[in-house]
Amino acid sequence: MTKSVFVAVTGRPNAGKSSLTNLLVGEKVAIVSPKPQTTRTRINGVLTRGETQFVFIDTPGMHKPRTKLSEQMIKAIDNSIADVEVSLLVVDATKKPAAYEDRLISDFKAKNSEVILLINKVDLIKNKEDLLGIISEYSKMYDFAEIIPISVKKQDNTELIIPAVEKYAVESPHFFDDDLPTDQPEKIWLSEIIREKLLNSLFDEIPHGIAVQVESLEYSKTNKGEDIVDIGIVIICEKQSHKGMIIGKGGAMLKKIGGLAREEMEEYFGQKVNMKLWVKVKEDWRNNEAAITDFGLNFE
Ligand SMILES: Nc1nc2c(ncn2[C@@H]2O[C@H](COP(=O)(O)OP(=O)(O)OP(=O)(O)O)[C@@H](O)[C@H]2O)c(=O)[nH]1
Ligand SMILES: [Mg+2]
Q1: Residue 154 CA: which ligand 1 atom is closest?
Q2: Index of the ligand 1 atom closest to the CA of residue 35
């Protein structure tokens, strides 16, 4: 008798949802960065333990939509919450509850959702008594099934999460491959690795306007007969001035990004990677439905 449980991982931008999803699944399925709105669509992180398959749905951080892209991101959140046995609301212990949490909680109320509150980043709280105040503030907002203070960074209390969600598992077939940590297409995952390096290396204003596409992926051989993966990647940005910053002086930034990404991709493929990067400008693509669809970011 097999079981499965779908779990939505929700919260404001930067709360630590993707870090948590990766930790729970034990593999990097979602990219992580210090910049808000890193995750742009729902990403399934799959963990199979014995009879039970856990499907953690990492979602974009809840925010006020300002572009057509963010409207799709919000749809991805709402849709994720609607489909699951239980949701995790990940909050930042150093930040007061605000409109982000209110919006999610009103969704939970409308759907009468089972929700486990995870108060993350407790490693940043100096006075542990402050935690009691945070817990009581959140308890007034919703009837949470459980409240667990955690630190994903220090892996404090994170071992309590799997047993807490396992209670919601239902008898069912496994919907995903038992041996794969995600159903994300490989090309998407590879493009996300590039976006992660860009988010971590560039100034604030540019990253939100960046999209990455893997244009080609071929397995070939070097002159010496070694296996090599040839990857062609296009980075799309919104302004000519941004293109300059992404390329950097004498191509230095692009070289740095390419180097960091290649290292990670070589580890993933277990063989050498040859990567070619191009940068293109597509003005205001975040409000261009055709472009959003083309980049795989249209939720519907
Ligand atoms: N100090 C501390 N930092 C953390 C912890 N968990 C995550 N972070 C950091 O918080 C930042 C955001 O992490 P993400 O996992 O990308 O957050 P997210 O909620 O997925 O963000 P979006 O995708 O933008 O919604 C990163 O710099 C993480 O390293 C934690 O427990 N403690
Ligand atoms: Mg994320």
Answers
A1: 31
A2: 24
Q: Is 124 exposed, middle or buried (0-12, 13-18, 19+ CB in 10 A)?
A: exposed
* Whether the CB of 18 sits within 6 Å of ligand 1: yes
Superfamily of domain covering 186-294: K homology (KH) domain (3.30.300.20)
CB-ligand 1 contact for 124 (6 Å cutoff): yes
Say if residues 53 and 47 touch (Cβ distance below 8 Å).
Answer: yes
Q: Alpha-carbon distance 44 to 270, whole Å?
A: 24
CA distance 60 to 11: 8
Residues 6+ apart with CB under 8 A from 136: none
> What is the rounded distance in angstroms from the CA atom of residue 106 to the CA atom of residue 112?
10
Whole-angstrom Cα distance, residue 11 to residue 27? 21
In residues, how long is the chain? Answer: 300
CA-nearest residue, atom 13 of ligand 1: 16
What are the structural domain ranges in the chain? Answer: 3-171, 186-294
What fold, for 3-171? Rossmann fold (3.40.50)
Whole-number Å distance between alpha carbons of 126 and 204: 28
Q: How far is the CA of 185 from the centre of ligand 2 (A)?
A: 17
Q: Give the span between the Cα atoms of 200 and 210, in whole angstroms.
A: 13
pLDDT in tens, 5-64: 999 999 999 999 999 999 999 999 999 999 999 999 999 999 999 999 999 999 999 999
pLDDT 10s digits, 85-123: 999 999 999 999 999 999 999 999 999 999 999 999 999
Cα separation of 177 and 49, whole Å? 12
Distance 120 CA to ligand 1 centre (A): 9
In one-letter notation, the amino acid at residue 128 is K
pLDDT score recorded for residue 128: 85
Query: Among 152, 197, 199, which residue has the most ligand 1 atoms within 8 Å of its CB, making it the best to mutate?
Result: 152
- The model carries a pTM of 0.96
